[in-house]
Design brief:
alpha/beta; Rossmann fold; Kinase-pyrophosphorylase; kinase; 4-stranded parallel sheet; EC 2.7.4.27; P-loop_NTPase; about 280 residues; about 15% strand; transferase
């Protein structure tokens, strides 16, 4: 065998699974020099033939091909050329088919899809943290959804649930004494959701919150007249924004998130596949 072992990754997806597999194997041979060639996104037998025609006979093929016909074709060509093949994907699929009695769908690129979805979720969560509580109004214009409401209408927890479903969400607390950022009025109204709640329930929530923080005595924070004033103000803002309004009084956070998502896809049906 040559001093340098050529390893050819052939995949109908990115080949990342095979790359990681080879790294694990070759790490056990610290004195082995390797040259890794990656051939990703293979979709036809003709492409496989071109690769095989140019292959050094001392090479090792590591394949991750979900399509059964392509996998069989490559193994047949490799056998004819007397080239070693490590078919790590088909081995696992075949064993699981034997074990479960189920048939694999053998669809290329599913790992890439899962990875993309995962990283989209992480990005959405980071976005939610960065633009929570109106920290930076510039985030409104980059948001899929902007939640607006008075204090303790569950804006932040709802934001985080939506983020786990790949939505970029920012939120803004409304306070009559605070100026509303101009950026909010530049957002597509269909992307803005106003949250309202029964004043008595909000008073109880705020009262409990105050006690949890160890604060005692009367406070305008949970005063019912003050709360009614804040909610009336919020409704005026929602009217100016021309946005959807959701009453969260009887909702769990999950129910509110579901209602928002249903409304969102009514307005932006073309984004359903991207978020799924």
């Amino acid at each position: 065998m040559e001093d340098v072992l050529t390893i050819v990754i052939i995949s109908d997806s990115t080949g990342e699974t095979a790359i990681n597999y080879i790294k694990s194997v070759t790490s056990q041979f610290p004195d082995l020099e390797t040259r890794v060639i990656r051939k990703p996104d293979i979709s036809s037998k003709a492409e496989l033939d071109i690769i095989m025609d140019g292959l050094d006979k001392e090479s090792v093929i590591v394949m991750t091909i979900a399509n059964k016909d392509l996998a069989l074709h490559l193994r047949a060509r490799a056998k004819k050329e007397n080239i070693i093949v490590l078919d790590i994907l088909s081995y696992g699929i075949n064993k699981f088919e034997e074990l479960t009695g189920m048939k694999a769908i053998r669809q290329p690129g599913l790992t890439r899809t899962l990875s993309t979805g995962y990283f989209n979720m992480i990005n959405a969560i980071e976005f939610a943290i960065k633009y929570d509580d109106g920290k930076d109004p510039r985030g409104f214009l980059d948001s899929d959804i902007v939640l607006v409401g008075v204090s303790r209408t569950s804006k932040t927890p709802t934001t985080m649930i939506l983020a786990t479903k790949n939505f970029k969400v920012s939120n803004l607390p409304l306070l009559p004494e605070s100026e509303i950022p101009q950026e909010l009025f530049e957002v597509d109204p269909d992307r803005v959701i106003g949250l309202v709640i029964d004043p008595d329930k909000l008073s109880n929530i705020r009262s409990q919150r105050t006690k949890t923080l160890g604060l005692m005595g009367e406070s305008k924070y949970f005063d019912k007249e003050r709360i009614k004033y804040e909610l009336d103000y919020a409704m005026e803002v929602f009217k100016d924004l021309d946005c959807k309004v959701i009453d969260v009084t009887e909702n769990t956070i999950e129910q509110t998130a579901t209602e928002i998502i249903e409304y969102y896809f009514e307005k932006f049906p073309e984004e359903r596949e991207e978020k799924s």
